[in-house]
Write a structure and sequence with these properties.
Helix content: 25-40%
Strand order of the largest sheet: 9-8-7-10-11-12
Catalytic activity: (S)-lactate + NAD(+) = pyruvate + NADH + H(+)
Function: Interconverts simultaneously and stereospecifically pyruvate and lactate with concomitant interconversion of NADH and NAD(+).
InterPro entries: L-lactate/malate_DH, Lactate/malate_DH_C, Lactate/malate_DH_N, Lactate_DH/Glyco_Ohase_4_C, NAD(P)-bd_dom_sf, UBQ-conjugating_enzyme/RWD, UEV_N
Protein name: UEVLD enzyme
Pfam family, one: UEV
Number of domains: 2
CATH architecture of the largest domain: 3-Layer(aba) Sandwich
Strand content: 15-25%
Low-confidence stretches: 133-137, 148-168
Length: 466
């Protein structure tokens, strides 16, 4: 059922007037996650002048939220045509254009889309003619493309055209939000070489501005900018960086606005990447990780927040390199609630012979921790530093490193916490997110602080409308 049936029909009538050669039908489209939907679609040829005149075959699928969502566009090459992979076309024949990324009703129309498609194809022809022998060798690829454009998927075929690099080994991530933090995450992940492909979902209104425009100008390998949630399909990790930038009056209003943003984001990314790990960097991270968990209905292991990972790395670095306390640093963690209520803790009891030595060891650690916290006071967390931390976490997940990080995870059942709240705790991370929570040394003061944070976060969550 099309939500805006009359608007959709009116627009397709206009397309038919301008391009009478197009044929329309209703067929089943299969998305990358395997879900299916009956969608209107049309195919035909568009005239393109590139030295000579060419008729380029295309196939467009109209989503049920049209005209508020852009069509899904493909080339539809014949058996004697090869696809020229370029800026606007991938190896499957999927078409990517600025017009699609910046789609906004009523300004954007299918006629306008086709006009831009023609203009871009006249700059870079998307198809070329194959010899008979080339056509024979390309038959499997063309068959696969035909199935994709008709809404079918064939994983066996796909693994072959990827040269044996099947979907399981292809490390794709998506960063949601094109603000300073989102772009910092893209650059940090790209620099670390953690992912095979990075998709930046720019959800801002209007044309690409600032950093996203610069990313387009200085195109980075394996980085794609899109406004279409379907571009995030099959991501191994989805990083949430969006934050409300409006004029809310109270702190609760700001958080509720972030929750409202997430209500439109989490179901969409969860739909396209049902086995992904959600990595939340939005504020406040504990609350927004909880919101992501609730809205996605994912298992708790696959929804984590960046939490105190950056604080912990700084803490351990300070102990090791500035205070020369390397033995202490390997067991030191910053845990709890991000911000002023974070607390240092330890995961190794360092058993000693008697109570006097145990007390001396505890005092030594506390002094070192206090000195380190004093050194780090006022450092703050800039976008680029959080981006580096996010890249570190992403690398551990994608490469199944099973490294311990202090991340926001469901704390219920830990330290006598009975409410569903997320707090930073040391966790082993792997392909499926949290593998195991590392046991902390029992410290009544630390437990009291964690319980206090859990109580205040729970009270705040109770006031939100999910």
């Amino acid at each position: 059922q099309y939500k805006f049936r009359d608007l959709t029909i009116e627009e397709l009538k206009n397309v038919n007037k301008t391009y009478p050669n197009f044929t329309f039908s209703m067929n089943t489209y299969t998305f990358k996650d395997g879900s299916q939907k009956d969608l209107l679609n049309f195919s035909g040829t568009i005239p393109v002048k590139y030295g000579n005149s060419y008729n380029i075959p295309i196939h467009l699928w109209i989503l049920d939220s049209h005209p508020f969502a852009p069509p899904i566009c493909f080339l539809k090459p014949t058996v004697n045509m090869g696809i020229s992979v370029g800026k606007h076309v991938d190896a499957r024949g999927r078409i990517y254009l600025p017009y699609l990324q910046n789609w906004s009703h009523p300004k954007s129309t299918v006629i306008g889309l086709i006009k831009e498609m023609i203009a871009k194809f006249e700059e870079e022809l998307p198809l070329y003619s194959l010899s008979s022998s080339d056509a024979a060798r390309q038959s499997e690829l063309l068959s696969y493309i035909a199935k994709i454009t008709e809404g079918e998927t064939d994983m066996k075929s796909k693994s072959k055209i990827c040269g044996g690099k099947n979907e399981e080994c292809f490390k794709k991530i998506t960063v949601v939000g094109a603000g300073d933090l989102g772009i910092a995450c893209v650059l940090a992940v790209a620099a670390k070489g953690a992912a095979d492909k990075v998709v930046l979902l720019d959800l801002s209104e209007g044309a690409a501005k600032g950093g996203t425009m610069d990313l387009e100008i200085f195109a980075l390998p394996n980085v794609e900018i899109s406004k279409d949630f379907s571009a995030s399909a099959d991501s191994k990790v989805v990083i949430l960086t969006v934050n409300f930038l409006g004029n809310a009056q109270t702190y609760l209003d700001v958080i509720q606005s972030n929750v409202d943003l997430f209500r439109g984001i989490i179901p969409a990314v969860s739909h396209y990447s049902q086995n992904t790990v959600l990595l939340v960097a939005s504020h406040p991270v504990e609350v927004m990780t909880y919101v992501s968990w609730k809205l996605s209905a994912f298992p708790k292991s696959r929804v984590i927040g960046v939490g105190a990972n950056l604080d912990t790395e700084r803490f351990q670095y300070t102990l090791t390199n500035l205070l020369k306390a390397q033995v202490l640093a390997k067991d030191a963690w910053i845990i709890g609630e991000q911000g002023e209520d974070k607390v240092p803790s330890w995961t190794n009891c360092n058993l000693v012979a008697n109570q006097t030595e145990a007390m001396a060891a505890r005092n030594s650690r506390e002094k070192a921790a206090n000195r380190a916290m004093e050194v780090l006071k006022g450092k703050g967390q800039r976008s680029w530093s959080v981006g580096l931390s996010v890249a570190d976490l992403t690398d551990s997940i994608l490469k199944d490193k099973r490294k311990v990080h202090s991340v926001s995870t469901l704390a219920k059942g830990c330290c006598n916490i009975n409410s569903e709240v997320f707090l930073s705790l040391p966790c082993i991370l792997g392909t499926n997110g949290v593998i195991e929570m590392v046991k902390l040394e029992e410290d009544p003061l630390v437990q009291e602080k964690l319980q206090s944070s859990a109580g205040s976060i729970h009270d705040l969550q109770q006031q939100l409308k999910l």
